[in-house]
Amino acid sequence: MTSALHQSEAAFHDAWAASVDLTQVAVRQAFESPTALENRFILSQMGPLAGRKILDIGAGLGESSVYFALQGAEVTATDLSPGMITAATKLGELNGVRIRGIVTSAEDLRTDPGAFDIVYVANTIHHVGDRRRLFANIHRALRPGGRFFSWDPLAYNPVIEVYRRMATSVRSDDETPLTRKDLALAREFFSDTQHREFWIAALAIFLKYYLIDRVHPNDDRYWKRIFRETDQSLRWWTPLRRFDELLAQTPGIRWLAWNMVMWGTKLS
After folding, report:
1. CA–CA separation, 254 and 246 (whole Å)
2. Model confidence, pTM
């Protein structure tokens, strides 16, 4: 089962990597755009990155790996897609930094134990079949006192569920969004695991893309399209983001968010 899943995921992401013009990949937007809510929050928790050793699991095209390297971190990127690792290392070269790339699944992570200060897992856990092995590998890879940060989609929002059913060409068939069980699993390995949710009312931007801009979910990846927005184009959206800051503190309602950030520390 896992082998078939890995083959399917690798093939999908290899094809995606082959279709991308790396000169058009905007690294900084993924962390500095006004819509980069998850990464902006994660950066606020990480602190200075210069000299830190970071493991980027499921690095994809490499925007995160390259961004961390530009901040002075020593970055190792892993992905089960050879095409994505090639893209990530080339993206590093285009941006004047070196990324170490390893082709491996998250379940069979081949890194030295206790080698990293930070493990970062973005939009990846929902692609992983054996999440217990993933969290065990994250724990193993971190030094004592090291921290993990992740963000992934949740399973509970009905608008996003409709979007997933429509966006059949731009996402893999095997993904499974996170539930409360995944948070509980993370806490088995990192007892201080915390979480924060993003995109509830702010998800109206997806409705705008479809109903007003007339962009079908298969014609553009909405979760990438948001990074091309500007403060000017988001005047109508900003109050919704601020409203979400209240909604995300409300038990029950927070689980209707699009994405959840988790973070925790290896205590021993």
Report:
1. 9
2. 0.93
